[in-house]
Amino acid sequence: MSVPSTDPMIGRLIDGRYQVRSRIARGGMATVYLATDLRLERRVAIKIMHGHLADDNAFKIRFIQEARSAARLAHPNVVNVFDQGQDADMAYLVMEYLPGITLRDLLKDYGRLTSEQTLDILEAVLSGLAAAHKAGIVHRDVKPENVLLADDGRIKISDFGLARAVNNNTATGQALLGTIAYLSPELVTRGIADARSDIYALGIMTFEMLTGEQPYVGEAPMQIAYQHANDTVPMPSSRVPAIPRELDELVLWATARDPEDRPRDAKVMLDQLHDVSALVRGGTQELALQSTMVLPASMRTGVNALADAETQVLGAKLAPTKPPAATLLGLHPVGTGPVGPPDSGDLLSKKADKRKRRGFWLFALVILIAAAVGGTGWYFGSGPGSDVSVPDFASASPEAASSQLTELGLVPELGGAFSATIAEGLVIGTDPDAGSRVPQDSTVTIIVSQGLQPITLPTLAGLSQEAASAAITDLKAVVGSIDPVFNGDVPDGSVVSANKESDGADVSAGGAYFEGLTVNLVVSLGAIPNVDGKTVAEATDILVGKNLLVVSGEQTYSDTVAEGDVITAQVPEGTIREGATLTLVISRGPEPVTVPDVVGKSWGEAKGILEAADLKLEYNIFADAAPGLFTVTKVTPGAGESVPKGSTVKINFSA
């Protein structure tokens, strides 16, 4: 017998649209579930704020801030946010679902990464952060847990839950946000964060990827925070000597204690990373010089000088055997260039002839291109080769769609498909899709809704709740309400009955139904426990343990149940659910009898009367030999007294 899911969110339909399937992860602010968007028929990740935080406006505002921050970003290396809302008292956020692992999982499995792997992940994360910084957003919680490595190879940064606008970077007395292992010195000491704080966290994360460990450890968070504020991050090669010097200097640049000494944002660091990548991925010294070559200081000012300073920080300060300025100025080593200047007159004459010939061909080429462009523009703009954009006919009538396509010079053709969102008889879409450009006279299929797709439900009665729910959702129907009831004929946790939410029809033995519609389940809680013969305390504990209420009822006589114990628990009529009230019938012990008056009667007559009263008799057995000769003179207890059934009565005779 399977055990029903203990998470009440599993199977729940949120906002009439998102069907919760399973739990993915649980964090400090929210739990993330895998869900199906029934409207768009796609899998999504839905983040639901913990219930105890729902009444905290600060947490709710931070939760909504995550949605707004992430929704402003549209980048291949940032997890997309699709929707945000509130269902009753539950705030939720709908995001792109990426099957895969986090960078933290990868580090747990492999310890540390190669230089090439580190560079690949850094490039993706920096690309996403560069888009965020350009939009004025600081992530504030860069760490391996928030870097997602999808199964299809995509790398994305997620969880902008602590994000804030760049211009809102001063502390206001709030507690520090972010994971302590990645906090920048300015966040620790002043509570201030900007784009350079993200760069510092990324530098710490790079150190961890290269070495498999964090630069600072301590028994308490404050010890780690103190090191961030006062110590200089060591070079990764001090832990793993094989790490290239260029990556050492990249980490030192990103983790400088003074924010002014770091890259000003992710774009600056990403540009330099490309040069470092060329060096690390097997480039020769000559290639390294070419990729980082800059003009001499005497020929640079302003931004170029700053760029040179950043290049030198990264170890690109290598002197070539011949100053690069020499080549730029047209000088050549001995034996490799012109020996002397050519005759000036001949040179000028040749250059003039060359210019004339080049001018003629350029003019001819311009005329030819203009003619080609004009002809092509006519052919594709208004001639027989012109394309037509397919309109969007969603929810329109097929007749209106056919008429409009014909007017556009296209050939309409009807097709059909089932839909849970578009009413039967209306247009779902077209093939090719709306917005596609197709040549005139092309055939465009109008896809008309056939309504909900029929399905056949299996027999649900007798299945476990988990198995019945899976059977329903596998067929793209929806699990509705779960009604737990006590039932002595169906095992605990199994389905008693099922019904269609649309019309209440019974579907316990399965049958025809439709995708997207809801099935309600009645699930057994098992039989109500038998408490006959138990003490009142024992019976109460047992029934309360099943979430039933207990009250004491009438007291009655019982020949089999001891006085004060429970004879039975009376159950209300109809369906019994948790919270129902049961009434205990309590024993008063055996019912008493009145001792008959047999004094003066013969023993033969008296004996029959006393035995009929369920009394035990104590007497001289010789009286049985001649019962007519003996007369009862006394009974103890006396006649008229009440005694329990089965009590012993003593009889005295006279002859």
UniProtKB/TrEMBL annotation:
Q: Which reaction does it catalyse?
A: L-seryl-[protein] + ATP = O-phospho-L-seryl-[protein] + ADP + H(+); L-threonyl-[protein] + ATP = O-phospho-L-threonyl-[protein] + ADP + H(+)
Ranges where the Protein kinase domain occurs: 18-277
The cross-references to SUPFAM superfamilies, in alphabetical order and at most eight, read: Protein kinase-like (PK-like)
Any GO molecular function = protein serine/threonine kinase activity
What keywords are assigned to this protein? Answer: ATP-binding, Kinase, Membrane, Nucleotide-binding, Serine/threonine-protein kinase, Transferase, Transmembrane, Transmembrane helix
Domain (PASTA): give its ranges.
385-450, 522-588, 589-655
Q: Where are the transmembrane segments?
A: 360-381
Task: Please name one Pfam family that this protein belongs to.
Answer: PASTA
Q: What is its EC number?
A: 2.7.11.1
Top-level EC class: transferase
Any GO BP: negative regulation of fatty acid biosynthetic process
Write down the superkingdom of origin.
Bacteria
Q: What is this protein called?
A: non-specific serine/threonine protein kinase
Q: What is the organism field in this record?
A: Cryobacterium glaciale
Q: Read off the lineage from the record.
A: Bacteria, Bacillati, Actinomycetota, Actinomycetes, Micrococcales
